[in-house]
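hey
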């Protein structure tokens, strides 16, 4: 994002997924929950774009949250950090936006315990439960796993937006998804974009600027 977000090397170094997910948000939320925040990349990218956010960041890993706190300090940002598992977190709090780059990969967990073996149906359900009525839930997932998330979103949300992302393959590698809680059923599928788009990754523009042609 042209240096607007600084990240130190740590237990898990974020990828372009974080920049894309933050760029996909097309509302101006006041309260945000970043689920599985890791080292804080999604939250920080979003806060760099949208001022005045009251950010809550939750992660099951204390090591990740320690790194996230350091990254927030590095960027002069603040958040309410919660060391808990979204699947068992008990709270009545709801948010304008719930955003997550979930642990969608399958296989042997890595040392940092990120991006592996989550029950995406339950993960999505818990995220939606923390989204206020008419609020937005947004996520990015591997294309092979998107049907699971879309099915759960469809049961609780409307105004579903789907944006495939591709690199050098002729099939999508990631899919950006968002939906509004309690809205009438409606789905929009956008033309795919390249994951290497400099307008997003380098210049830090929102996805809606590319979709609308501005």
């Amino acid at each position: 994002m042209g240096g607007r977000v600084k990240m130190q090397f740590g237990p898990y170094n974020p990828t372009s997924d974080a920049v894309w997910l933050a760029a996909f948000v097309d509302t101006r939320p006041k309260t945000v929950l970043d689920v599985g925040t890791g080292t804080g990349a999604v939250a920080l990218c979003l806060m760099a774009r949208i001022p005045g956010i009251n950010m809550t960041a939750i992660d099951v890993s204390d090591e990740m949250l320690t790194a996230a706190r350091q990254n927030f300090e590095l960027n002069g940002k603040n958040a309410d950090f919660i060391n808990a598992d979204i699947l068992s977190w008990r709270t009545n709090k709801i948010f304008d936006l719930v955003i997550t780059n979930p642990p969608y990969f399958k296989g042997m967990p890595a040392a940092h315990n990120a991006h592996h073996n989550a029950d995406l149906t339950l993960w999505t359900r818990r995220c939606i439960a923390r989204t206020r009525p008419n609020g937005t839930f947004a996520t990015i997932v591997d294309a092979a796993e998107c049907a699971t998330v879309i099915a759960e979103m469809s049961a609780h949300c409307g105004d579903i937006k789907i944006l495939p992302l591709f690199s050098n393959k002729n099939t999508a590698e990631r899919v950006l998804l968002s939906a509004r809680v309690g809205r009438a059923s409606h789905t929009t599928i956008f033309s795919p974009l390249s994951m290497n788009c400099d307008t997003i990754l380098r210049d830090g523009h929102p996805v809606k600027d590319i979709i609308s042609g501005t």
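The chain is about 30% helix and 25% strand. The two ends are 18 Å apart (CA to CA).
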